[in-house]
């Protein structure tokens, strides 16, 4: 069956460090992979999209990599801040536009 | 510019009752999506409208769920009759552009539905 796994339910790091979140998938051939941020009581907010033929995408302190051979995406937040504390969701799109989400990783950045 | 709005923010109903959720997409967005997250699970796709037409309804769980998008503007999702397992957070999202290519989906805050 198709499956998306995000490396852990929760990740705690110190302010200023780099947070690295992992998204692994099986039995998919995604056209796109996206990362979203979700705060409590809010809807997901789009952060970055990476296409199957792209290896890396950056936006300010965020970096996403996509390895279709390993079936894995890594999401990095450099120079992390307490305001980065949130749940981060990985989502795949096989081209149908319907997003398939992972269960998320809750990031806590300690001051 | 206003974002995606959803009404109500919370709904508590008895099993067997009917509930209607509403979503107002971002103005000008042809694509409208419904997703839901049930307790402890990931967010799951329900269906996708392009304007007033259902493009993909493969995620609708059963025929107790009815989605409409009259005139290609706002959308409603009706659950009739509601069951306990329907409890969860229902998200609406919208996006602009040609349905054949990917573009950003903007999510609303969600409606939290509790069926007692």
Low-confidence segments of chain A:
none
What is the share of helical residues of chain B? Answer: under 10%
Structural class of chain B: mainly beta
Taking all Cα atoms into account, the compactness measure Rg of chain B is 13 Å
Q: Runs of chain B with pLDDT <50, length 5+?
A: none
Number of discrete helical segments of chain B: 0
> How many strands appear in the DSSP assignment of chain A?
11
Overall geometric form of chain B: globular
Our estimate of the beta-strand percent of chain A is over 45%
The percent range for strand residues of chain B is: over 45%
List how many beta strands of chain B DSSP finds. 11
3D architecture notes:
- The complex is a heterodimer of chains A (111) and B (116).
- Chain A is mainly beta and 111 residues long.
- Chain A contains no helices and 11 strands.
- In chain A, strands 2, 4, 5, 9, 10 and 11 form a 6-stranded mixed beta sheet that branches. Chain A has a 5-stranded antiparallel beta sheet with strand order 1-3-8-7-6, with no helix packed on it.
- Chain B has 116 residues and is mainly β.
- Chain B has no helices and 11 strands.
- In chain B, strands 2, 4, 5, 6, 9, 10 and 11 form a 7-stranded mixed beta sheet that branches. A 4-stranded antiparallel beta sheet of chain B has the order 1-3-8-7, with no helix packed on it.
- Chain B starts with a strand and ends with a strand.
What is the fold's blueprint, element by element?
The complex is a heterodimer of chains A (111) and B (116).
Chain A: E1 3-6, E2 10-14, E3 19-26, E4 32-38, E5 45-51, E6 56-59, E7 62-67, E8 72-77, E9 86-93, E10 100-101, E11 105-110
Parallel strand pairs in A: 2-11
Antiparallel strand pairs in A: 1-3, 3-8, 4-5, 4-9, 6-7, 7-8, 9-10, 9-11
Chain B: E1 5-7, E2 10-13, E3 19-24, E4 31-37, E5 44-50, E6 53-56, E7 65-68, E8 75-79, E9 88-95, E10 106-107, E11 111-115
Parallel strand pairs in B: 2-11
Antiparallel strand pairs in B: 1-3, 3-8, 4-5, 4-9, 5-6, 7-8, 9-10, 9-11
